[in-house]
Every structure is written in structure tokens, then in C-alpha cells.
């Protein structure tokens, strides 16, 4: 993994500054001024702000409007996210994600092209960001479902997702945070029924690569996505029949794999019950907070 990563990237280091760039984008990043310690802040000031999953992202498209780059600060999630923001003790997290992303792209896993990872020391802390090629015609899973897709469109997306996740797992990768926001749906003309969509996986900061992904780990990731559909109120959009079709497409006729995954499905059913109970406890507290 490290050898492949080194072959595909250019790495720069200076005092309080770290940068890894995919070789295919090295000339562009140099022209944007990002290879200099102060260049990142200048680029962000000139970039276009857009909304992201955990806060604003930035789009670099002034010099190359046909191939924009999305910059995503590596923000923390969870309870302390508003205070921690994108501050970290070390710069390792973003470069680990960039390495993982690069290796999986080399294995033809459907992901947006990684461009660079950058980290800068600010006092005692490091602030990091990850950049990938922007998919201008794509929407994340929730935004796409909000467009009320037709049954045929839903079916095509489920098939595309199943194939994408199977490639991801067969490459030895476990996403670790597979929810509906971390799916990117690229469909240039959804009205054209002959047009094939693409489902891309994004946000790999919790992804790990191992020698093999077990059937239990595979069904756990699929079940995690189902839980996210229910938690966000989109479970009705993906019927049981579509879920069965997704699993069938994922297994691609491998009955041994399917049977092995189904042996673990009851544990995921129990886990779903626990999550539903927790969601019911959280909702009254949220409603009470809103009334105040």
C-alpha cells in the first residue's frame, strides 16, 4: 500500500506544512499556488463556498472551470464538533485518508479522483483538508432522494450502488461510516431512461483496508446504510423488494457468499431494534429542546 501510494503522489514538507498531491494534478496544484505554505489560504479566499456534510466546502474553478476541485476541511463529528472544528493534534488523519483513496482508485473502485491532502500547523494544532475532483452533475443520496426519483430511477441507482460497494469490499476496504450522505449519485440526464447512473462512495476518513472483508462485515455495512435511511426518514423510498434486489446484485450469483451474509443478518436485525429504541428516546428530548 505505501509503495503504491508513493508512486502515485508527490509529497512536500516544510516547517508546519505538509502536502501530498496526486501526480496527475501536480502541475495544476503548482499553478494554483498550493505548493507554497501560504498558498492555501489565498486559494480559499478566491474559492467559491458551497455547503458540505459537516460545514462549508470550497470549490476551486477559476483557472479550470471545466474541472473544478472540491476542498473539504477535515472537521470532527460528534458532540464536541462545534468546538473541535478542524483542529487536530497531528496531521496524520488526512494523509491516511488520501493514501486509502489513492489505493482504491488504482483498484478501479468508483470514487471521485483524489487531488491533494494538506495540513498546516496553527499554534499547537494542525488544520487539514482533503481535495477531490468535483463531480458537477452529482448529488449526495439525501439530495437525490429529495428529487422524488421514479421507481425505474431508484432501481438503477440500487443496482449501481450494489456493484460499487461490492468492488469496494472486494478491494479489501471497509468504509466504516456508510450512510446515505456518503453516497454520490452521478446521473447526467436522469430523464433519459437509457442513461446509466453512477454511484460513488465518498468520505473515507474511517475506511480501512485489510486482506479480506468477511461476510459479517459486508452485511454490517449494508445494514448500516439501511439504518441511515430509516434515521433520516427515507426508508419508505427504498422498498423491501429493492433492498432484496440490491443484495442479490451485490452477491452477483455467489450463493455461498449470500448464505454466509444472511447467517449474520439476524444480528443486524437486533442492532436495528436497539437503534430504533435509541431514536425514540432522543426524539422527545429534541422536541422539548425546540419548545424551549
CATH fold category name of the largest domain = Transferase(Phosphotransferase), domain 1
Domain count: the total is 2
User: What's the alpha carbon Rg, rounded to whole Å?
Assistant: 20 Å
Q: Would you identify the regions where 5 or more consecutive residues have pLDDT less than 50? A: 1-6, 285-292
Give the integer mean of the pLDDT values.
Answer: 87
What is the rounded distance between the termini? 52 Å
Largest sheet: 8 strands, antiparallel
Q: What portion of the residues fall into strands of 2 or more residues?
A: 15-25%
- Into which percent range does the helicity of residues fall? 40-55%
The DSSP helix count reads 11
CATH architecture of the largest domain: Orthogonal Bundle
Shape: globular
CATH class of the largest domain: Mainly Alpha
Tell me the number of strands. 13
**What structural class do you assign from the helix and strand content?**
alpha+beta
SSE order in H/E notation? Answer: HEEHHEEEHEHEEEHHEEEEHHHH
What is the CATH superfamily of the largest domain? Transferase(Phosphotransferase) domain 1
What report would you give on this structure?
With 292 residues, this protein is an alpha+beta fold. It folds into two domains: 132 residues; 144 residues, Transferase(Phosphotransferase) domain 1 (Transferase(Phosphotransferase), domain 1), CATH 1.10.510.10. It is built from eleven helices and 13 strands. The strands form three sheets. Strands 1, 2, 3, 4, 5, 6, 7 and 8 form an eight-stranded antiparallel β-sheet that branches. The protein is globular, with a radius of gyration of 20 Å.
